[in-house]
Structure formats: structure tokens, C-alpha cells
Specification:
alpha+beta; 10 strands; 7 helices
Amino acid sequence: MIRKNTGEPVYVTIAASLRAQIVEGKMNPGDLLPSENVLVTQFSASRDTVRKSLKALETENYIYSQPGKGYFVAQPKHDQFVFDFSEEPRNAQANVKNITMKKPDPEVRAALNLPETRTVIEIAKTLLYKGVVVAYDLKYLPYDKGQPLIESEIQYAVFPEIASAKTAPFAFYTKMEIFAESATEELGKLLDCPPGTALLVVKRYFVDHKDDVIGYGKQYMKPSHRNLVGYSGYGENT
């Protein structure tokens, strides 16, 4: 195959060609992809470049490998969804209301699996879009004695970076829970909505490789101002 000079990396061109064949039904779930040798010849590319393109498609869930056999087209998971959720939505303004050390309430203590004697750092924010409050965000970190509390750093850092400061970047994962909850009188004042308004609530748990929860967050959102978008099928992690 003669490749057109598009200015993009060769592995991107190869991945795009194979992806198109899968999407268009020229290759279907369970089909064996051409071997690396065939792809090297077909695209006049190096073996490393071909492997990079295959790994990219594997990451996107288009294909999977079987040792000694090669790569196969994957079965799309249309009944499983991956949600695109950002802690702070695009074009939203985050205002830190307070950063305090406090004794956690029973919910936070249970989420972080802390004894009654432990203290947490609470980070409270409001999120505004075009001047309107659209969400109220709470984050909690276990506080260790002697741990410096630098509010300026906490205020502008992304929460996962704060929660994982004591562990390697890939040594923790995030668990998310989504549900609806009625606004209390206090939440109604913070979100400028009547008590009883249905709010979308997202809980996030940051869990390290020892299965210890190293951070906990809870965000209350006005559904009319914040949507969760889910994806299924091929490319669900892209």
C-alpha cells in the first residue's frame, strides 16, 4: 500500500487504516488481523512502527492479542459504558470556599476507614459557569500529624495529585458512584436552589495498591447545568 504524506506519524496512519476497516465492517469481531510481517510490507513501515499502531488499537479496545497467534478484532461492549467526567467542567470557574482541618462525620470516616481520633483536611469549592453556581464540591484527605498544610498548593492542584502525593502515579485507581439526592436547606443555599431540588451526586474514592482509600470526594450538581456523557463500543477509552 502506498501511504499518502499527511504529515502525521506513520503509526497513526496505520492505526487509522485498520480502525476504518473495523468500523466499516471489512473486519469483524473474532477476525484475525494481518500478521506484523504483512503489515510491515503493506505499509512500508518498520516492525516497531507496526507494533506501536497495534498497541494503540489495543488500548482503544478495537483489538486484542493472543500470544503466539496474533491480534484479533475485539467484540464491542455496547452494554457497558465509560463516562467522561471532569472534576471541573470546561469553562467553569472554581472558587475555594475553605480548606480546614476537622473531625470527619460518620460518612467521611467510613469512606476513609478512619478511627474516631483521626482528623481530615476538608476542601470545599463551588463551581460557577457564566457566573451561576452549578456545583458544590467537597474533598477529604486523612491528615497526618506534622503534615504541612499549604493552602495555596492545595487550592490550585488537581485533587488526584494531592491524594496520591505519597504514592506512585500508577499505584492508585479511582472508584466512582453516581446517584440522585434531594437538596438540603444548606445545599439549597450553596447552590441557590430550593430545598428538595433533585441533585446529581458523584462520589469518588481514590484507592492505593494496598486497597486503602487515600482520598474521598463528593460533588453535588444541578442536573440542568451539568451532564454525564457515557460511551460504549469500540474506542470506549478514548
